[in-house]
Amino acid sequence: MRRSIPALLIACQFLLGPILFLDARDGQTGIGFGLGLIAALLSDIFDGIIARRLGVATPRLRELDSWVDCWFCLWIAASAWVAHRETIVAFAPLFIVWLATNLLALSFDWIKYRRFASYHAYSSKLAGLLLFLAVFALFVTGPNSFLLGLALVVAIVSHLERMVITAILPEWTPDVLSFWHAGQLRKTK
Predict the structure, then answer these.
(1) Banded model confidence at residue 97, pLDDT cuts 50, 70, 90
(2) Rounded Cα distance, 136 and 144, in Å
């Protein structure tokens, strides 16, 4: 049973996306939405930590974690659209670049490896934390324009780094912390 905890945490995040969207549909969100965001963040942080400690951090599980992160992000974007459309429209250029660089990175992964990258790089972790803070503010305390803009810029940089990592690595490799680490891995292979 203990060995299934990481998969259960990933499933929790998978389910929280649509649940939070249902909460946001009426345009009124608050502490309940915030608690759901915190639960999703904690499940995303601890699924990998626990998986490594239990020795079940397989490439398949890491890839599933990346897919669920994307799934959850799409639900939060849909929630923001229905509950805070004016903020999304105000940041439309950054959102479009964020989405375009993400789709470009996914396409590059697919073309090169026939699967999607699961790097969990430092830049991705920083982007995730900043996006969490910006989204929490948006839905719970009120929009913070500086934080949202910063989070989107860091996320775009993270997508660009993901493409660089994919360009460097000759074969699909999970858990690559940065483009520098990718270069070191390439030298050893």
Answers:
(1) very high
(2) 10
